[in-house]
Design brief:
Elements lengths: L3 H6 L5 H13 L4 E2 L4 E2 L1 H8 L12 H8 L15 H21 L11 H18 L1 E7 L2 E6 L2 H10 L4 H10 L8 H19 L6 H9 L14 H36 L1
Antiparallel strand pairs: 1-2, 3-4
Length: 268
C-alpha cells in the first residue's frame, strides 16, 4: 500500500476539482484585510474592477467572467465538465487579476489591501496544477501571462533568440499556446517571423536547406500559385514539424557559438 506522500506526489489532474478549488480560494471570506473590514479576494477584485485596464467594456468582474465564459461554482452543483484548456484559460485570468491588483494596490498602510497570504496560497495551487500537467506559466511582458507545455528544448531555443529579438522569442512561446493548436493562420504568422529571423542567421553562415524550402513553399514567406497546397490539418502538421526544426536550428546555433568561443580560447 502506498503511503500518503506517494499518493500526493503521483496524483493525476482533476480539472473540475482544480477549477473549483481556485474559485473556493477566490470566494473564501476574511482572507483580505481592507482595514475597515475583511473580505474575499473576489470582493476585493469586484470593488477595484473598474480600475483594470484590460476590462474592455465590462462593468464588473462577473460581467467580465461571463464574457470569457466562466461559471461560478454553486454549493451542491457539479457544474459543466471542463477540459484542460479551459482550466488553463481560467488560470491565466486569475493570474491577470492578481498581477493587476498587485500593481494598482496602494498598500495596506496607504488605504489599500493586505492580501499577500491568500495571494501566495492561490499561487501555490496554480504551481501545483502546472506540475501535474507538465506545463509552465510564462511571463510575456505587459502584465500578460500564458500557460504553455513544459518543453526545455523550446525554452533553450528562445534564450538563443532573446538577446537579439525579444518579440520573436516571445512569438516562439506563443506558438505553443493552446489557443493556437488548430489555428493555421496564427501558426503561419509566427513562422513568418521565424523565417525572417532565419534569413538574418543565413548571413552568419547558419544554413538549413530544409527550413529554407519550407519557408519558401508552405505559404509562410510567400503567397502565390507556386506554393504547396494542403488541407488545414495537413498544413498544421507541416507547420508544427517546421517549428520543431527551427528549435533544433537554434540549438545548433547555440552550439556553434559555444564552439567558436572555445576555438578562440584555444588560439589565444
Amino acid at each position: 500500500m502506498k503511503h500518503i506522500f506517494d499518493i500526493i506526489e503521483n496524483q493525476k489532474i482533476d480539472v473540475n476539482r482544480e477549477y473549483s478549488n481556485l474559485w473556493h480560494l477566490l470566494l473564501r471570506t476574511n482572507t483580505v484585510n481592507a482595514g475597515y473590514s475583511r473580505m474575499s479576494v473576489y470582493d476585493m477584485l469586484s470593488v477595484e474592477f473598474l480600475q483594470f485596464d484590460f476590462r474592455r467594456g465590462a462593468i464588473s468582474i462577473s460581467d467580465f467572467l461571463d464574457r470569457v465564459g466562466f461559471w461560478k461554482p454553486r454549493s451542491g452543483e457539479p457544474g459543466p465538465a471542463l477540459n484542460l484548456n479551459q482550466l488553463d484559460l481560467f488560470i491565466e485570468v486569475v493570474v491577470l487579476f492578481l498581477t493587476t491588483m498587485r500593481r494598482v494596490n496602494l498598500g495596506f498602510n496607504d488605504g489599500g489591501y493586505d492580501f499577500e497570504e491568500i495571494d501566495e496560497i492561490i499561487t501555490e495551487n496554480i504551481v501545483n496544477v502546472m506540475a501535474m500537467t507538465n506545463q509552465k506559466l510564462v511571463d510575456m511582458g505587459g502584465n500578460k501571462y500564458i500557460v504553455i507545455p513544459e518543453d526545455e528544448a523550446v525554452f533553450a531555443a528562445t534564450e538563443v533568440v532573446l538577446p537579439e529579438d525579444e518579440e520573436t522569442a516571445l512569438a516562439m512561446l506563443q506558438y505553443m499556446h493552446y489557443s493556437n493548436k488548430e489555428d493555421v493562420s496564427a501558426k503561419r504568422q509566427i513562422l513568418k517571423r521565424l523565417a525572417d529571423y532565419y534569413e538574418r542567421g543565413k548571413k552568419q553562415g547558419l544554413v538549413n536547406d530544409n527550413l529554407g524550402f519550407a519557408f519558401n513553399n508552405l505559404n509562410i514567406r510567400h503567397d502565390n500559385d507556386r506554393q504547396i497546397k494542403k488541407s488545414d490539418k495537413e498544413m498544421i502538421e507541416l507547420y508544427d514539424a517546421t517549428y520543431r526544426e527551427v528549435v533544433y536550428y537554434l540549438l545548433d546555433k547555440s552550439h556553434k557559438q559555444y564552439a567558436d568561443k572555445i576555438k578562440e580560447l584555444k588560439t589565444n
